[in-house]
Structure formats: structure tokens, C-alpha cells
Design goal:
With 431 residues, the protein is an all-alpha fold. 76% of the residues lie in helices and 0% in strands.
Length: 431
């Protein structure tokens, strides 16, 4: 049956049921994912007596350097498979696999079984990612695609904000395994939404086979200039992925958040809410997502007409400063300031990175190059997990000098800026 892409309304009313269905899917999937990731590295290394699994930090680094790259790598194939076999079928597979992965993680405690369970979750999440953006692209047109994707990105950050803020603190107070059960339910119920509400979106006239996708990948990866640019930019994302590992370990082991707790509880008491709220690991994700929700529109408007590369560099510089601030002091408000400034840098740099890829890509291959620009996440997370864990154990646990750890990561940010400047000067295609 032929579907209408949009209704005849304007603004929010211009989107059909399928659009809002996938927005709900995105909110719950990302909320479940970030709810787990906001505390996963802490849970895995926490002692068994405290409710954790007692893994080594190096072992957790290997897990994170394996599962996170899959989230960026698998969409290469899953997008083509969805075009070939249908979005509805791939969503059934993705939700079933994700939900089972989360559920098994709540039940097992050995390193190998936890690793396999999280791999299952990552496979499902990797298959899910391109289907939602693909559906939005097909269910919108030039009239409302900007607003449509804006709502999409907000739904991601809204899930990443609400789940760690409200659900995670409550559930871990009962038992840490409940966080994974929450994620299993949060993604598992989407099977019903997919089965009874989601409708297969209109397919484009031509779809790529898996073989064609792999052929395109080979062609892109043979372009050494493009690959080098991705490698340079991925160094900044090594810093970003520390927010889910080393930053959380540092917070739970070294930073006294009492000043923040007192201020927040005092503010809530002023409104008549008497609580014993405490800042914990999951709130790092809350700060990151909350900063983006609050400031993304402002930042986007400020840099709307600025050149891509200088804006990228400003954003990376802010992120680098945010990381360096962590080395200044262990005071709670210094920690908060570092996370907020880093988040502002992230939201400044990344949209302009996408724009920059479009500028340097060959005119007839822009879509292809943009499709592979996400490889920054494969490299950044693949290196960041193991590197972060190794450096943390050496500088923080052995030398007892956490400040040096954040300075080293800050130097990686500086090298990223230098690398981009050199790339733009000597290797970027001249327009």
C-alpha cells in the first residue's frame, strides 16, 4: 500500500504516524543505552561486596574497545540489509537482540559471559541505528526534514538525560542488575510497537546490495587523504569516550561531590522538596546531554555562517580545555565545569565536522563520503577504551597523579588541532 510521506499540516503536524513511531523508538532505545552506559564501567570494576563484578579496569577497557566500535561499524552493512530485506524485519532483529543482550547481562557475572552479552546488545544497537534515520529521511521532505531531524537529535539527548537522571539512581539503589533489566524492557517493548504500529516506509527506486556497499567502502578507504582526516579527527573522540570510562572512575574514586549535593538539595528545599540527592557516575551523562539540550540551538545559531574548519578547531579547543580543567583541582565544581565546557566543545565541533566532510569530498561522491565519516567513532572508541584504562591504572592508581592523566588527554586534543591545521594547509582538496 502506498503511503503518504507527510500530512498537509505545518510544523509538528506535518509528520505522519510512522515518523512519531520511530522518534519514540529512538527515545527509548537511546535512553536504555545511555542509562546502561552511564554506569557500566563503574559497575564492572566495582567490588563484588559493593554489588559490582570486580573486573580489572584493563579488562573493562578491552570490552569497551570492542563493543562501542561495533555501534559505528555495523551500520555500514545494516543499512544495506534494511533496504534489501525491509526495515520492519531488521527492527525485529535489532530489538530482540538488544533486549536479550541487556537481559543476559543482568543475569551473568563471569567476564566472558558479560562480554558476550554486551556484544549481543551492541550488534542489536548497530543494526538499529541507520534504520531510524533512514525512516525519517523517507518520511520527510524538503519542507520539514530540518525540523524532523532536529526533533530526532533532541529525542536522543532527551533519552540520555531522563533515564540516567531518574531511573538509574532508583534502580541501582535496589540492585545494579535492575538497570539492565530496565534496558531490556525499554528495548523489548519496542518489538510490539514495531509489530503493530510501524509501517514499512516507501523504498527508494534504487537500493544498494551489500556487495555494492563493501565496494564503496574499499573505494573510500583507498582515499588516503580522507582516511587521514578521519584519523586526525578521531583523536578528539578518544577524549569523548573517556566520559564513559576514566572520568567515571575518577569521579567515584577521587572527587568529593558534597558541595554540589548541598547546593542541589538546598535548591530543591527552597521549592519545598526535601531530598537527599547525590551526584553520582550516571550524572556525568546527564550533564553532557542536558548541556546539549539547553545550548544546542544557541550554539548552532552562533556558528551557522562560520567556516567549518575554524569552528571545528574552536570546538575541539573548548573540549580540550574542559579536559584540562579536570587536572586543575579535585573540587566538585571544577569537575562540573570541566564536563560542561567539554560538552559545549563537542556540540560546537561535531556538526561542523559533518559540514567539512561535505566540503572536501569529491563532488560526485559526497553522500558516499558522508556515509563513512562515522569511522571517527570506530577509531576513537576502539583506541579510547584500552588507552584510557591503561593510562588510568598507571597514572592514577600506580603513580597517584590523576592530574597527569587529564593533561595527557588534553595534549591529544592539542595534537588534533595541529593535525587539522596541517591537513587543511597541505592535504585538503583546494576549492
Amino acid at each position: 500500500m502506498k503511503q503518504e510521506h507527510t500530512t498537509q499540516g505545518k510544523g509538528f503536524r506535518s509528520f505522519n504516524r510512522n515518523y512519531w513511531t520511530v522518534i519514540i523508538m529512538e527515545f527509548f532505545e537511546r535512553g536504555s543505552y545511555y542509562g546502561v552506559m552511564s554506569v557500566l564501567s563503574v559497575y564492572l570494576v566495582m567490588s563484588v561486596n559493593d554489588g559490582g563484578l570486580g573486573f580489572s579496569k584493563e579488562g573493562v577497557g578491552v570490552i569497551k574497545s570492542t563493543i562501542t566500535p561495533l555501534l559505528y561499524l555495523l551500520p555500514i552493512l545494516s543499512g544495506a540489509l534494511a533496504d534489501r530485506f525491509g526495515y520492519k524485519r531488521l527492527l525485529m532483529f535489532a530489538f530482540a537482540t538488544m533486549s536479550l543482550g541487556y537481559l543476559l547481562t543482568s543475569m551473568v557475572s563471569s567476564y566472558s559471559l558479560v562480554f558476550l552479552s554486551l556484544l549481543l546488545m551492541a550488534v542489536g544497537a548497530g543494526f538499529f541505528k541507520p534504520i531510524i534515520s533512514g525512516t525519517i529521511a523517507r518520511e520527510t521532505d524538503e519542507r520539514n526534514s530540518g525540523l524532523g531531524f532536529g526533533i530526532f537529535y533532541w529525542s536522543i539527548n532527551l533519552g540520555a538525560f531522563i533515564f540516567p537522571l531518574i531511573l538509574v539512581p532508583y534502580l541501582k539503589g535496589i540492585d545494579w542488575s535492575y538497570i539492565f533489566i530496565m534496558a531490556a524492557i525499554g528495548t523489548g517493548w519496542l518489538l510490539l510497537l514495531n509489530l503493530f504500529v510501524f509501517r514499512e516506509p516507501p523504498r527508494p527506486a534504487g537500493t544498494q546490495s551489500v556487495g555494492a556497499v563493501l565496494k564503496g567502502a574499499v573505494m573510500v578507504l583507498k582515499d588516503y587523504r580522507f582516511v587521514l582526516m578521519i584519523v586526525i579527527y578521531s583523536m578528539f573522540w578518544i577524549l569523548y569516550f573517556q566520559m564513559f570510562d576514566t572520568v567515571l572512575w575518577y569521579l567515584t574514586e577521587y572527587v568529593d561531590m558534597s558541595p554540589v549535593n548541598s547546593s542541589v538539595n538546598g535548591l530543591l528545599a527552597w521549592f519545598g522538596l526535601h531530598t537527599d540527592w547525590k551526584f553520582d557516575a550516571e550524572h556525568v551523562t546527564v550533564i553532557n546531554a542536558g548541556t546539549i539540550i539547553a545550548l544546542q540551538l544557541l550554539i548552532s545559531s552562533l556558528v551557522r555562517n562560520t567556516k567549518a574548519l575554524p569552528t571545528m578547531i574552536i570546538g575541539i579547543a573548548l573540549g580540550t580545555i574542559g579536559m584540562a580543567i579536570l587536572s586543575v583541582s579535585m573540587h566538585a565544581w571544577v569537575f562540573i565545569a570541566g564536563i560542561v565546557i567539554f560538552s559545549i566543545g563537542e556540540m560546537t565541533a561535531h556538526p561542523k565536522f559533518i559540514s567539512y566532510v561535505g566540503l572536501i569530498a569529491p563532488p560526485d561522491k559526497k553522500a558516499l563520503y558522508l556515509g563513512y565519516s562515522f569511522l571517527y567513532g570506530v577509531i576513537g572508541s576502539g583506541v579510547g577504551g584500552i588507552l584510557g584504562a591503561t593510562l588510568y591504572v598507571y597514572f592514577v592508581e600506580e603513580l597517584q597523579k590523576p592530574g597527569l592523566l587529564w593533561l595527557i588527554f588534553s595534549f591529544i586534543g592539542v595534537f588534533t588541532i595541529i593535525g587539522l591545521l596541517l591537513y587543511n594547509r597541505y592535504l585538503a582538496p583546494k576549492k
